[in-house]
Amino acid sequence: MKTILPLRLAMVGGGPGAFIGAVHRTAALMDGEFTLVAGALSSDSDKCQERAAEWGIAPARAYESWRQMLEREAALPPETRAEVISIVTPNHLHHEVAIAALDAGFHVACDKPMTTSSANATAMAEAVARSAKLFLLTHNYTGAPMVREARELVARGEEGPIGTLRKVYVEYLQGWLSEDLESSGQKQASWRTNPALNGPGGSLGDIGTHAHNLAEFITGQKITRLLGARRSFVEGRAVDDDAMALIEFESGADGMLRCSQVCVGRENGLSIQLFGTKGGLEWRQEHPNDLTIYSANEGPLTRRTGNGYLSAFAQSSGRVPAGHPEGYLESFANLYREFAAAIRSGGAMPEHLPSIAAGVRGVQFIERVIASSEAGSTWR
Amino acid sequence: MKTILPLRLAMVGGGPGAFIGAVHRTAALMDGEFTLVAGALSSDSDKCQERAAEWGIAPARAYESWRQMLEREAALPPETRAEVISIVTPNHLHHEVAIAALDAGFHVACDKPMTTSSANATAMAEAVARSAKLFLLTHNYTGAPMVREARELVARGEEGPIGTLRKVYVEYLQGWLSEDLESSGQKQASWRTNPALNGPGGSLGDIGTHAHNLAEFITGQKITRLLGARRSFVEGRAVDDDAMALIEFESGADGMLRCSQVCVGRENGLSIQLFGTKGGLEWRQEHPNDLTIYSANEGPLTRRTGNGYLSAFAQSSGRVPAGHPEGYLESFANLYREFAAAIRSGGAMPEHLPSIAAGVRGVQFIERVIASSEAGSTWR
Amino acid sequence: MKTILPLRLAMVGGGPGAFIGAVHRTAALMDGEFTLVAGALSSDSDKCQERAAEWGIAPARAYESWRQMLEREAALPPETRAEVISIVTPNHLHHEVAIAALDAGFHVACDKPMTTSSANATAMAEAVARSAKLFLLTHNYTGAPMVREARELVARGEEGPIGTLRKVYVEYLQGWLSEDLESSGQKQASWRTNPALNGPGGSLGDIGTHAHNLAEFITGQKITRLLGARRSFVEGRAVDDDAMALIEFESGADGMLRCSQVCVGRENGLSIQLFGTKGGLEWRQEHPNDLTIYSANEGPLTRRTGNGYLSAFAQSSGRVPAGHPEGYLESFANLYREFAAAIRSGGAMPEHLPSIAAGVRGVQFIERVIASSEAGSTWR
Amino acid sequence: MKTILPLRLAMVGGGPGAFIGAVHRTAALMDGEFTLVAGALSSDSDKCQERAAEWGIAPARAYESWRQMLEREAALPPETRAEVISIVTPNHLHHEVAIAALDAGFHVACDKPMTTSSANATAMAEAVARSAKLFLLTHNYTGAPMVREARELVARGEEGPIGTLRKVYVEYLQGWLSEDLESSGQKQASWRTNPALNGPGGSLGDIGTHAHNLAEFITGQKITRLLGARRSFVEGRAVDDDAMALIEFESGADGMLRCSQVCVGRENGLSIQLFGTKGGLEWRQEHPNDLTIYSANEGPLTRRTGNGYLSAFAQSSGRVPAGHPEGYLESFANLYREFAAAIRSGGAMPEHLPSIAAGVRGVQFIERVIASSEAGSTWR
User: Fold this and answer.
1) Domain check: are C198 and C265 in the same one?
2) Is residue B117 part of a domain?
3) From CA C328, how far away is CA B177, in angstroms rounded?
4) Domain hosting residue B366, numbered range
5) End of a domain among C125, C140, C155?
6) For chain C, N or C: smaller number of CB within 10 Å?
7) Given A122, A140, A158, which residue is the final one in a domain?
8) Is D279 helix (H, G, I), strand (E, B) or coil?
9) CB–CB of C269/D282 below 8 Å?
10) Predicted ipTM?
11) Tens of pLDDT along A262-316?
């Protein structure tokens, strides 16, 4: 038996005050599949060292810049140097870092939305294509066991409890930007409402892409046409804080998508309801261990994480027996765990893991809603 | 003290196999405010007599036709004859019966949608205007105590927990027409999918108008602009069984409305979420005694029917102390009870009771969505 | 066809400030099965007349005392006089009124708990036995459609989803007596905490008997042994405001029962969970249209009122189609509706309707818990 | 700045087929506070090596027995050797391993119940007392943010929303042992129903101790008196699979505790409701991010993990912003994270972390319920 050593991970971004960097670290560490060995954690050198010390990264591998990190890590001996780069910066930096990392021979795990324009997305896709490396886009909700169960049930088509898909309603409602938080200097609000750092879509990029991705992941279909309206409710805000769309899927199913960051009191209200010719499904992120299944001749059934009646896909996506709730970090960790397995296998990304194609589609989604909205809500 | 005698009610429609007639009867009887004295309950004379016997109506007042009923009742002595006509027929008959009844000096309670075209609606409005009689449109959900609490909270504006309205999401999802039930001869499905009896809007008329009315009732605002898409999922169906719309309110708030009768397994999924600058609300018809209130600095609060912390309007809309659930029939009965009070007072309809104006708006709503949909989803 | 005329009802109790009188009236009127023709509504003659006027009772039939009422009504012609007496007074009066009414040839509907001692209960049972009249005890929760569905599912035994019963957990938690409300003069609190009016059991009589009855109704079994502890948390209170018991059923199943009126913020938290060898059930009064069914190899299933998949018993206990909530008053009205049918049929009470035997058992339950508690919680 | 290196952890137990070992590993790894360096993972040497390889433990540190491990690790240089021993074996081994580990100079994290008899518990307490080492008992639910919020709210006494405590209802209901699973050879069922491995309490030890601990943790009070009944519903089972108790707290509050493993379809139904003079609380393990707060003059309020309105204790117990659910593993990881901090500080265990005293009380609880039950349910 060969001892399975953790993969060596380096992080770009994730300094003090950031949120998603710590999430990626926990997700990567949770199963012992990764060890965090290096980081360009902040453009402020002191902050980078501070975080590195806190996170057990040797001072010498807490770099001043991501370029320095890529260069120096690439120069280390193969058994020491980082194998995977996690990109957790504001969105506008993703593409540059990712392309450089791929070209330097690193695998890349990148936060979403993937980048700020289709042009960048295309360049990233080309970088993935020319590298022999793997690229993970951390659309974490696709790691939730009951989301995966939903996907399996839909995929069964006429043999399954849903039948042929007709309607999809997806939404992601938050309230944290219902006031002009960015003017207060709050770090998360500041960069996420700045189009130069976040891209042109505010709520669209931050949470609309999650809703879009979730709908495509569970249905196994592309949204081929949409009509949208976005706006900013908070005066002076430079990006949208709210958007709505009618959506159509390739099979002819249709539905609605909405995202908002001005729904006061809502936390992370990502939910999806869908209906086919035989039944329906409902999943709510804030109670992620429940999946409601609707049918014509019985009352709603609630399937729950960890049970033997679930599909193999959903079962293998949990860590604990039924009745022990799995949360946000576990769904995130599933992506890292499966990414590690893909890297170790030397093969390609498994079909269900969000990758470069999902990233490209997410950026296109933002651009399509914006274009439709600016044209007075016409179909795209 | 004067003994308060029940008002005398006559019904058009409501024969065996119908659903809404029995509901109107129970709603009218529940508080002892009405007694059912006459009926043109079915076009089939035997069925009319059968139902009349079951419902305690004397055979002589179980009429062969509504025309006969109006004529003969009007000829009875004032202390005997019916005072109020309830119209619970398929939609296409509403306008003719209502106009004749009003013109013959009866008050009218009419089921919704009010009628099948704007032209009819206008004629009805004229009949109401020229009569000295009252007209109730039974948009029953406006009678639910927690819907009324919601309306009160929104009406408080900046002084209240919601602030200035921004977003309204309303939906009414059913599943009972997800298959071609009408071909099986099921009575409800047959007339409701027949445009000649139901009007041009299927789901739009049957449940979309409820969603529309609920949104306008709670917000106290009109939907001034909308963009819609409707369709039939079941092959061969002559009316829509599904519709979606982006909506805008007079104040600048906006949102989404959807209705569907093909959401398998959903029963009467009428729900509304709305958000303002300070907080939000959520109400779900299937658990009608709960109203969730969202705010920025605390978790969601659930207010419940019958409690002393509710507005006077909500408190006076219940019959039992807190913790004893009020249901669909009680909300319906509130309309009848308040209609009786208005009739007895000899005055006008109270502002909050759905009346002719709500009926006109409902018909216009159907027509606007159809027009928008046929134009490829353009704003109206 | 013979027109079905409403049965004539007279009420004892139910004056202004009372709660349960109005509930009985609404429950009786709702289906048109009864008409309220007479009342001894208050010991205060003015209040009796006031309420009579409000309720449409002729002044001549608003009596000064229940004795006067029984006497004068009995002297009226058969086609006019009251047929059924509803007793909605404080508990200490039930037995005297009921016995007199039965002996005078009236059917009786009596609120619960039936009376204040076993001796009284026995006397009432004898009166029922010697009369040819029917006696209804309004344990209203047994009228809820999903409670009835639960009873049906348990009754199926090994053929059904529950199997052989093992565990029953039942509770009724309220908070309205968590302070010394009786000293403020609040009418409900005053008589319900006065042992002379309410009987020796406070929470035990008021709500503990509901929990006891619900457990016996759904399981179809008697609680044969119990061990209890009761107490008063509010200083100076003359009756218990809280009680707990271990319970055993005739089949060997066991469980726990609790009732409390000091659970601040709880409204009418009556709920039951039970489990057998094959599955389990859960019902909560405050969301009465849902019944959760647990099983070994699937997630929990929620059955809901009004659906075709329910037992005939549950289906016939509703008034409206699936998705339209039925509430407290409808469950109460079911008892009156079925009582009317039993009276009209001239036969006996249907087995499922709570009658004199349930009343006797309720009184014994109170006495057993008190005896056990006073002996330091020993088995009885 | 000094780089914070992970503490070195060694595990006893946790081989293939076990459940709780993997949980401890994940909980320890999640925050990067521990690295798993050694293990006596199975009495079967091959299985130990297999698991060690899978978990990244060097073959040389995958030991044949826990005695061997303690001896050899203690002989390693201080900068290499394990610092903490996690004990995740069946219960009967806990005391021997823990005492030896403490005596050999290791900190100990031990699964619950702590051991199988009071005598063992006392011996363990003496070992903790004579060592300079820390001892963590992994009562993981005490790590859940909303459980901690509950504890804080109760601790505020009359100043807080609960006031003086009156009632506590706690339960832990599972269904997985509703059949004779142990005869099938299922590993978890086999040892947990074997008194020689599990101790005399079946459900009492496995889940009753969780309920007991949760009640004492949240109330900050000891259960000073109880009366219980335990039994086995499954024929031939050597330990209890169900227990019930009336409980009394040192302040005079009382309540009920129940645990069962025959509630078919229930997963890990640990929940607690408590009420004081001013308000109440409710927490359910299966939706652990919600805490319901009851009060007299408003509806129930739901507080949720990650929000700024929570106590500092609850806020510091989370890892992600509001709306991202925390699960079972995060609550478990909180204990490990805080244990690491305590070890690093060189000081004592923080008062809130479950330690040797909680372990002793848990064992006494099991013994008290058994003694009461055997005496026919008398107070102890």
Assistant:
1) yes
2) yes
3) 30
4) 145-320+355-374
5) C140
6) N
7) A140
8) strand
9) no
10) 0.96
11) 999 999 999 999 999 999 999 999 999 999 999 999 999 999 999 999 999 999 9
